[in-house]
Structure prediction request, 729 residues.
Amino acid sequence: METILLANKILNCNSTLQNNACIKGLYKRNLNVITREERPEPFIAGHEAISSLSVYNNISASTNDFAMRTSLPTVNCTTVNKFNLKKAVTRMLAAFFVPVLLFISNTISAQTTQTFSYTGSTQSFAVPAGVTSVTIDCWGAGGGSGGCVSSSKDNASGGGGGGAFSQKTFNNVTPGQILTITIGAGGTAGATTGTAGGTGGSSTVTGTGISIIALGGSGSAGVTATTNVAAAAGAGGAGGVTGTGYDVVWAGGAGSTGVRTTSDEVGGGGGGGAGNNGAGGAATSGAATANTVGGAGGAGNPNTSPYKGGAGSGAITSEGTNAGVNGTAPGGAASGASDYNTAVAGGVGGAGQVVIIYPCPTYTINSTSATAPSTTGSAAAVTITSSNLINGTAYTVTYSLSGANIASNQTATVTLASGSGTFNTIAITNPGVTTITITNIAAGTCSNAINANNIASFSVSNAVYNANSTFTVPAGVSCIQAQAWGAGGDGAGANFSSGRPGGGSGAYVINNSFSVISGSSLTIKIGQNNGTTGSGTTPTANTSISGGSSTIVAAGGSSATTSTPGSGGLSANSSAGTGGTITAGNTGSSNNGNTGGKGGDAPNGGTGGSGGTANNNGGNGNPPGAGGGGGGGSFSTTSGGAGADGQVTITYVDVSNFNTSATSPICSGSSTTVTLNSTSIAIGTYNVNYSINGGTGINVSVPFTGTTTKTGTFTIPGLAAGTSTIPIN
Prediction:
């Protein structure tokens, strides 16, 4: 119930005053504000002036009551012959000049880093929405180390060289642009035949207006000597270097030479890969009896992964055979191998790397609105507007539902055009008010939480039930429209040349003013296809709504026999409650030769299943409530179609989403206009019942129009002087 309190003192003016300046041009009104345009000067001696006018807008959030109070003294208009009026123009000049500081900025969040490691395949990067500048860091791969042949003497190969680093910022990228990324593979290991280690692969990033490369380190030479000669100690590989034209370049560290004597040997250390803040360290070698030390990875800023270069590997000295140790990514080189009497392979260099750094924009929403589905089982449409989301870009929206429907971490895709975009929620299964809250928006790798202008509510007041359920009557609802269909019967099957008859449909019941109690529960049982033959219905085929002022029952149709069509749900087996209407179901059709009979159509519901042609099954009835078709004639066996299950539809007006306001007349006997706004009803004409000061209820027909918000108005004539309370039921 909505209550409008017109609490201004309505003047008891006569016709003389109505032609006077008392009501002409003195006041200009809108919904909540009254301003003085003309103000009478004090009356001549002995007469009282209208000295003050105050307005208070008192709107209760819970009831949306509208109250307008004005303080007007009673004026005996018949004793006033003349007002000495003059145009009193009072202007309030700007006494205070409030400086407004306009900030125009492109809000940017913290930088986002995306790292690409070696996969063996070309990779790609799509520039996110709102991003126009990227910084690209490239690391070349480390070199591999050479292998050693089998020898009765001591052999040792050197370590590979570390990969180089290069960096450049590109301010010419466009959102959606694709950059192609190739990560350098680590240099291959030299074979046991004494081949050299492979050069580390170069890492590159290319695209329109984009080109950057970081070279890999060199591989070390292998050792093929089988006699005690000096060449049996292999040299280390050179560190990778990168040309000019970049913002930052650092070289990889050089590998060290293998060390051997006639009785001891140790492979050389691998050079360190360069970092984004320093060159790769060179490896060091000492005596053949000491481990070699791989080069340190180049310094990073910050000095952690993924910005720091990979370390080159060290080699272990021992009497015997030691394969090269693989380098560490990004860009660390492998250590050399050493052998005694057994051939040994070198190590593999550490792979390269690419890091792309860019500032993600902060995505914001200007407004969120939602349009309810026409019935349960469908999705709500949610529209957002934004001044910084890019038109034509697909964004991923994360949202939650609360209220009548509950869900969390749901996602949808929205693409804006002219600053506005719409996405659909998951299916709304429960009637009532549901609130959607948008929690996050993402585009590619850019993502941020949404905390403002991100909430909207919608109400579904048309619920469709295809399975047993419970309907809780919303607050303020005392009357609903209830529709019910019984289940349809099956068509008969055939095992002879003649077709068989179709099943009957369920009955249809509608009650446009089914009385309910706010907060109570209605039990809904949906008629199920009974799947039997015979002429009677079974309780499972009936659909019912119980718990209101009476029980609604829509009887199910019967299934066909081999010779008799199924009858429709009977009125005698149905009930509609006070003021309701019952329409009996339709009987199925007889067969036509070897073609089965059609199932009965459900009144205002589904169409009956088609009869099967020769050797074909009958068609199933369509929901809600239609009968199944009879099977076609056959010397084998055909089946009749299944009858459709029943259904319940409940429709109501959600008064919780009504806002009510009214204009207040100055003089008694004048009319007032009442305005109703709602986001929960459809366009159409509704019956509105109101009363004045607890009097007899008055019905008026009010057409509602609009898009998201539907608005209707009606007029109450001849209000008396004093305070008027108008409840709308």
Notes: The longest strand covers residues 432-443. The mean pLDDT is 78. The helical segments are 15-18. Residues 183 and 203 are 5 Å apart (CA to CA).
